[in-house]
Amino acid sequence: MASLPLFSVLFTFLLSLAPAFSTNSEGNALHALRSRLSDPTNVLQSWDPTLVNPCTWFHVTCDSNNHVIRLDLGNSNISGTLGSELGELKHLQYLELYRNDITGKIPKELGNLKNLVSMDLYENRFEGEIPKSLAKLKSLRFLRLNNNKLAGSIPRELTGLSNLKVLDVSNNNLCGTIPVDGPFSTFPMESFEHNRLNGPELKGLVPYDFGC
Amino acid sequence: MGSIQMYQLVLFLSVLGAFLAVSTLGDNSAAAYWLLRVKSELIDPAGVLENWSPSSHICSWNGLTCSDDQTRILGLNLSGSGLSGSLSREFGQFTSLETLDLSSNSLTGPIPPELGRLQNLRMLLLYTNYLSGKLPAELGLLKKLQVLRVGDNMLTGEITPTIGNLTELRVLGLAYCQFNGSIPIETGNLKHLISLDLQKNSLNGLIPEEMHGCEELENFSASNNQLQGDIPSSIGMLKSLQILNLANNSLSGSIPIALSRLSNLKYLNLLGNELSGEIPSELNQLVQLEKLDLSRNNLSGTISLLNTQLKNLEALVLSNNALTGSVPSNFCLRNSNLQQLLLARNKLSDKFPLELLNCSSLQQLDLSDNRFEGELPSLLDKLENLTDLILNNNSFSGTLPPEIGNLSKLENLFLFDNMITGEIPVEIEKLQALSVIYLYDNQMSGQIPRELTNCTSLTEIDFFGNHFTGSIPATVGKLKNLLLLQLRQNYLSGPIPPSLGYCKRLQLLALADNKLSGSLPPTFRFLSELSTITLYNNSFQGPLPTSLFLLKNLKIINFSHNRFSGTIFPLSGSNALTALDLTNNSFSGPIPSMSRNLGRFRLAHNHLSGNINSIFGQLTELKFLDLSFNNLSGGLQPSQLSSCTKLEHLLLNNNKFKGTMPPWLGSFQELGELDLSSNNFYGTVPAELGNCSKLLKLSLHSNTLSGEIPPEIGNLTSLNVLTLQRNNLSGSIPSTIQQCKKLYELRLSENFFTGSIPSELGWLTELQVILDLSKNLLSGEIPSSLGNLLKLERLNLSCNQLQGEVPPSLEKLTSLHMLNLSNNHLQGQLPPTFSGFPLSSFLGNAKLCGPPLATCSESVGQVKKQLSETEVVGIIVAIVFTSTVICLLMLCIMWRIWCHWREVSISSSDGGGIEQKREDGKRVYGDKKIRRNGEYWKVNSMALVSSQDNKPNSTILARIFHLRMDSEAIETTLF
């Protein structure tokens, strides 16, 4: 009985050993993602956190500096939620998680992926609002969030995404009006259909979240 | 034989005697008979029961104790006798027994209910056996029982409530079994109970309030069960209680203040429950308390416990809670006994609690995983008894004070994951007991002091992720006990000191991510315990010492990204090797045969040569093989790699391999990545590759492969990337490729593909990076289905023989930012949205027109809807005529309007109002009462005129608009 506190110390010692060997933040972030996901078809089987970096994991692509630039988990039968750790993948360009059964919110930390070119989260079960932080993704060209359960209004901040070429938020539960500024002037109406949206924005006349 | 016959005889004779209890030894032979019955059910490998024989008096038998007059058996003690077998029912015959001790054997089966007949039993010890079944209710009949210990068995079921009848019971031990149900409330009847041990069962439910009836209880241990609910306040009435251990249950609520009345309590352990609320400061009244563990709960608030009150405290453990604040200012008691203070994983904040420096008896201090900040106090050396200083995962800053050298008993120093700067003080050399020093993930700089190597007790050094410069101390070899040396990710330079080879116990050496140079010292041959060595991302050079071949325990070697040269043979000596990574060095020569346990084998970007025959035949564990970017040659022989059935990555690209691609490549069921590109492979693409159903990436480009793509390619339904460009492939592109639904990159350029582009390519809707079919002999029209590739970013169909128009469906390719249709035979009008692409995207198509190419009017003759020149002239004349007429008409109308406006404005200014010219008729109307002069009519007439004119005016405008639309429509059909 007297040895119980000693056990605690021992426990601390054992805990402290683990971080001594796992040191790459991108690999840790992806491993944290894995721990959140249910993966019945074992597409994440090769994700071995003890490797120096995640560059030899399947469905992960790195550049020549061993930074993760692609995550390809579309159509992979995975479910679960995303977490803040994905924001650690600072060099990520392609986030392809489409056609799965992912639930929960889109983490606001995805706004930290400064180099992101494409965010394909379509055909999942994401809920909650589209995070405003996505407006920080100045390199973003493709944003496909269609066929989810996203609610709330389309953040006005997204009109600042000057490189955005494709946006699809159709088949969600969005409300309010559709922005008309910036790249939104070029998106077809099909990108917005099957929501609770109230047509294009009428600036000064109707608040943008009218009907929300 | 004789003795067995005699047993049978006795057995026969004593059928009647079976009803008689052997309470006295009046009939010695009857007692012997029952004892031998007991013996017959026991297995006695050690021969303890050897002298149990009818030939001697039973009182001389091993383990038996008789009364002084040898008339009654009082005790049977066979503890720790190595007995197995089961407990005989006949134990019930020995009603004179006062002590029955069969503990620490290997007995199996149930506890016989007949034990309930032993009315004189005072002590029943059956602990540490393999007894199963329930605790028989009949045990409740043992009125004189004082000690009942049956723990450490496999007993199940509920604890019988009849236990409450054992009113003489002093000790009840039921720990380490599988009892379930709740603690019977009848336990409260045990007024004389001193020790109750229920640990490590599956008990659930509440702790009964009635427990307070155990007035003399000194030890109550029920840890590691599933007890729920609050801790009953009535426990506070157990005045004699010295030990209360309820750890690892599901107890909730707050810690009852009533516990503070347990004035004799020495040990209180509530760790691993769901207790919440604050720690009651009343617990400070427990002046006898020596050990207090409240860790792993949800306790919040500040630390209110004080060593100045709990004067006998030796250990205080509050880790893993949500405690805030810091250590209270009057916490420490001078000359106290406090040895362990563990506060890890809370939300404690503020600077290092200086108050703690007064706790000079502290041996273990754990403040890890909190929010402490600021510098470490230089007076830290007041904690002269400290053996463990655990401060990791905080925000401590500043330097490591030199006074740390005065902590002469220090064994473990954990400062990792803080923001500590500055150098390691040379005074560290005084720490002669120091065993583990973890400084990783800080911002420490300067050289690693040579003095550190005087700490000869060191077993583990981890300085990963700091800013240390200079070289590794030359005297590192003095650390004879070193097991782990982790210096990764620093700015260390210079060579590895040869003395490192004298750290003969070293198991892990990690020097990666530094600026180290030079070659490996030959002394490394002494590191016979070495299991992991990682030197990647340095500037090491030169050949490897041949003697490395002697290191037989090596499991993981990573020398990648250095400038090592020479042969890799010295690394092939260990049969334990599982991972070898030598990527990006200058190794040359052939590849030797390797350990059969090898799972990862990476030799890319070297100058290795020779063929790879006879190397891989036995590598059945191989999962990852990367030999790319070398000078390897020869063909892939049959059965060469085919035993590597676990292969997941096979990368042989950028070598000089030649010959045909072997069909056995199709036998790798786990293969996810196959890259044979940039070699001299010829022949056809083996159809067997279609069996590699897990393949994600298939790169065969830049060889001289010929023939058709086998239709089996369609079986690769997981494929993401397919690159076959730069070969001599021919035939048509198989339509089965549509089954590769996950393709995001497809390159078939620079081959001799003929026929048309299969419209099925339009079903590959995940194509994203590129679809490249350029530089082939493809003909026919571009299938309009390609318009379905909504995610496609690059499309290259250039340098083919494509004909016809560019299908308008391609306008849907909104993701496209690179398009090349040049050098084909395309014709007609480009879709208007293509005007944003550069001219070069479309050049070399003689009959193609529209922006960015020249407008189509120049090639009007070729347009389907041809119009004769006279018709064109006629249309133009008509347009000019009608627009002139309209212009004139409008001018006329405007002139008239302007005239009337002038009149109105003059008249209204006459009326004294500062009316604006654009006042509408209504407004003017409304003013009529004020204006009584003649202007009123004029205004009205003007309004009338304008309202009459309004309609025709608008229709004219509408007509003009329509006309312009018409002319536009004509233009669009023209060009």
What do you see in this structure?
The complex is a heterodimer of chains A (212) and B (975). Chain A has helices at 4-21, 25-36; strands spanning 37-38, 60-62, 68-72, 79-81, 94-96, 101-105, 118-120, 125-129, 142-144, 149-153, 166-168, 173-178, 196-200. Chain A has a seven-stranded mixed β-sheet with strand order 1-4-6-8-10-12-13. A six-stranded mixed β-sheet of chain A has the order 2-3-5-7-9-11, with no helix packed on it. With 212 residues, chain A is of the alpha/beta class. The termini of chain A are far apart. In chain B, a hairpin with a 6-residue loop joins β2 and β3 (73-77). The radius of gyration of chain B is 47 Å and the shape is elongated. The termini of chain B are far apart. Chain A binds chain B through residues 1-2, 4-6, 8-9, 12-13, 16, 19-21, 23, 46, 52, 56, 58-59, 72, 74-75, 94, 96, 118, 120, 141-142, 165-166, and chain B through 221, 243, 245, 247, 267, 269, 271, 291, 293, 295, 315, 317, 319, 340, 342, 344, 364, 366, 368, 388, 390, 392, 412, 414, 416-417, 436, 438, 440-441, 462, 464-465, 486, 488-489, 512, 534, 536, 558, 624, 648-649, 672-673, 696, 720, 741-742, 744, 766, 768, 790-791, 814-815, 817.
Quick one: biggest sheet of chain B? 33 strands, mixed
- Helical stretch tally of chain A: 2
Radius of gyration of chain B, in angstroms, nearest whole number = 47 Å
- The helix-and-strand class of chain A reads alpha/beta
The largest beta-sheet of chain A arranges its strands as: 1-4-6-8-10-12-13
Secondary-structure class of chain B: alpha/beta
Our count of helices of chain B gives 5
Oligomer: heterodimer
Largest interface: A-B, 30 and 57 residues
Element order of chain A: H for helix, E for strand: HHEEEEEEEEEEEEE
Mean pLDDT of chain B: 87
What's the end-to-end separation of chain A, in Å?
Answer: 60 Å
Low-confidence segments of chain B, given as residue ranges, are 8-24, 859-866, 902-975
Helix content of chain A: 10-25%
Give the percentage of residues in beta strands of chain A.
15-25%
